[in-house]
Amino acid sequence: MIVAASLAVRDIDWQAPWLAPYLVVGEPLTQLVLAGIPCSTALNSVLPSAPVHFVPQGELPAGMAYEQFIFENRRVPTRDGLHDFFNGLSWLHFPQTKRRLNTMQAQQIAAAGIGGVRGCGASFVGLMSGLCSWRSALRCLCHDDGPEKR
Predict the structure, then answer these.
(1) Could you tell me which residues are beta bridge partners of residue 75?
(2) Fewer Cβ atoms within 10 A, N terminus or C terminus of the chain?
């Protein structure tokens, strides 16, 4: 999986204006991943003082909700891929926002439990949290220069 992550991050254009806020951390992170370092290890090394610690996905106990694990342990299970790469950058750049969203997710889990599918509240909070990550990832991958000109 690390090879696939390396191939994906290789295409990130750090000179794109929408990635400028992430450049200082993102570019060194990219180099670490390209060197074969797991994403969780790379994220921990670029900002050791982060409010969360990134761990391999395998540390998430079976049957435990991802969001609950983060809330209780301040550890983020991380896979090698663009989704978790940008999620990690979001945690590093917007720690208070991500922490608040995670708290809301934990409150939803406490109120409604963990079922086979997320409830409306948990889905909304998860979507908002994911937008922090995916907005940057999609723009990066698509090399989006803004609205299409005709």
Answers:
(1) 53
(2) C
